[in-house]
């Protein structure tokens, strides 16, 4: 039982690390001389421009879409961390034979947030790149490892949430 518990804890830490990495790294859309994420666009890895909501021609059109991706990815990371803390509390406070339902619900909410954030970016990426001057040099590229990590973390948090639904506290 101790081995299973250790595996569950390690798996949860991996989920949180994947979520954090996918949220903060600058590799959602990459090319030969550029990288872009949900926070900024870097050309030649030195000339970085923050994505912001400036008014006028310098503004980022549909900034609310990018804010939705940012918010859901941050919320997913926070919920994953919170579910880990609740799991540790339930581990010591839960009666024998009961399930980790609260932990599972919060972990599945984290999964849902990661799915929503990655789905919005997947669906709206082309429109965002075509409508904003900041992306004029980064049209030709491909999805980067942070984007892939966002989808992998979605599946890992889903599996983790299901594990908590099934897991019972034993001696």
3D structure, described in words:
By secondary structure, this protein is α+β, with helices and mostly antiparallel strands. It has helices spanning 2-24, 63-93, 101-131, 145-166, and strands at residues 29-30, 34-36, 40-43, 47-50, 142-143. The protein contains 4 helices and 5 strands. It has a 5-stranded antiparallel beta sheet. Strand 3 and strand 4 form a beta hairpin. The longest helix is centred in the middle third of the chain and has 31 residues, at 63-93. The mean pLDDT is 85.
What is the element layout, followed by pairings?
Blueprint lengths: L1 H23 L4 E2 L3 E3 L3 E4 L3 E4 L12 H31 L7 H31 L10 E2 L1 H22 L5
Helix pairs in contact: 1-2, 1-4, 2-3, 3-4
The counted number of beta strands is: 5
H and E string: HEEEEHHEH
Whole-angstrom Rg: 19 Å
- Content of β-strand: 5-15%
Q: How many DSSP helices? A: 4
Task: Name the assembly state.
Answer: single chain
Q: How far is the N terminus from the C terminus?
A: 8 Å
Helix content: 55-70%
**Morphology:** elongated
The largest beta-sheet arranges its strands as 4-3-2-1-5
Sum this structure up briefly.
By secondary structure, the protein is an alpha+beta fold. It is 63% helix and 9% strand.
Features:
alpha+beta, 5-stranded antiparallel sheet, about 10% strand, elongated
């Amino acid at each position: 039982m101790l081995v299973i518990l250790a595996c569950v804890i390690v798996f949860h830490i991996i989920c949180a690390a994947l979520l954090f990495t996918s949220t903060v790294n600058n590799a959602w859309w990459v090319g030969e001389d550029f990288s872009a994420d949900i926070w900024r666009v870097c050309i030649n890895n030195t000339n970085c421009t923050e994505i912001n909501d400036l008014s006028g021609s310098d503004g980022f059109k549909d900034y609310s879409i990018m804010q939705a991706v940012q918010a859901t990815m941050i919320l997913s990371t926070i919920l994953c961390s919170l579910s880990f803390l609740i799991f540790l509390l339930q581990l010591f406070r839960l009666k024998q034979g009961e399930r980790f339902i609260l932990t599972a619900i919060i972990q599945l909410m984290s999964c849902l947030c990661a799915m929503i954030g990655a789905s919005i970016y997947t669906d709206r990426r082309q429109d965002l790149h075509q409508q904003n001057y900041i992306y004029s040099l980064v049209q030709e590229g491909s999805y980067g490892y942070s984007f892939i990590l966002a989808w992998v973390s979605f599946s890992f948090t889903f599996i983790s949430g299901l594990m908590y639904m099934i897991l019972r506290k034993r001696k």
